[in-house]
Amino acid sequence: MPWLQVRLAISPEQAETYEDAFLEVGAVSVTFMDAEDQPIFEPELNTTPLWSHTHLLALFEADTNADQVLAHLQLLTGAELPEHMSEVIEDQDWERSWMDNFHPMRFGQRLWIVPSWHAAPEPGAVNLLLDPGLAFGTGTHPTTALCLEWLDGQDLKDCSVLDFGCGSGILAIAALLLGAKQAVGTDIDYQALDASRDNADRNAIAPERFTLYLPEDLPQEKADVLVANILAGPLVSLAPTLASLVKTGGRLALSGILAEQGEEVAAAYADTFDLDPIANRDGWVRITGRRR
Fold first, then answer.
1. Domain spans of the chain, in order of start
2. Are both 3-91 and 137-291 of the same fold?
3. pTM for this entry
4. Does the first or last residue of the chain, that is N or C, have fewer Cβ atoms within 10 Å of its Cβ?
């Protein structure tokens, strides 16, 4: 079924007004989109920041009259409408289209991330089967890629691994497939824990090898390897906690960090870890080291 899409160019101050107005005139969905590829990272707690130049996209059923929608919007807001346009867009099987564009990816020398519906390019390699539709991390982001490549280069035989902020479980599962003995994952989101378990089952990881916890329930056991692909702010504030969860001589890998945040995060761990040179990819970095 086709849809009528109405697009407005708005400022952040106009967002709530026009969102409410669109819903009032019958929009079935309202979406905010960056108009200038301007990133927003680590918003303040309890805030929903918008880009300085935002496009608001509203979808209506195809038989909706665009002129009437725009006229009603103007009446509801009592002001001239911002720059706008309307168009009819054809419906498609978005999930199928997206799946067709997600292909196996190689990380390092041994590891492949393979969509669960796709044949493994190298059946004899370490193949992690992943359904991105259920995941909170698929390997496509530079920070995940940096962590996966680091894991691929490590000797993980008989190691215990802690994935702090596990999301889809991709890093912990990769570590287990690469030889780790057992892994623990923790995340603040119940859905992330469910996704991690689903992905572990998909890769035939026994539940006793990969245990999952909310942070408040996390056992205070030290790991041989800790990976945390979260955000720079939490990594700095959690530095003492994360350091305490790594064995003496154990390894650490941190990411989710913008290049300009790398030195600040590294400084938070420099007293307890011998750090490697910071690895950089596409404006994101990975920090690794060994516990003194």
1. 3-91, 137-291
2. no
3. 0.71
4. N
pLDDT digits (tens, 9 = 90+) for 194-249: 989 999 999 999 999 999 999 999 999 999 999 999 989 999 999 999 999 999 99
Rounded to the nearest 5°, which phi and psi values hold at 71? -65, -45
How far apart, in Å, do the first and last CA atoms of the chain sit?
A: 61
Please name the fold of domain 137-291.
Answer: Rossmann fold (3.40.50)
Pick the CATH number of 3-91 from 3.20.20.370, 3.30.70.260, 3.30.70.2750, 3.40.640.10: 3.30.70.260
Whether 24 and 76 have beta carbons less than 8 Å apart is answered as: yes
Half-sphere exposure of 245 toward its Cβ, with a 13 Å CA cutoff?
Answer: 23
260-278, pLDDT tens digit by residue? 999 999 999 999 999 999 9
State residue 80 phi and psi, 5-degree precision.
-65, 140
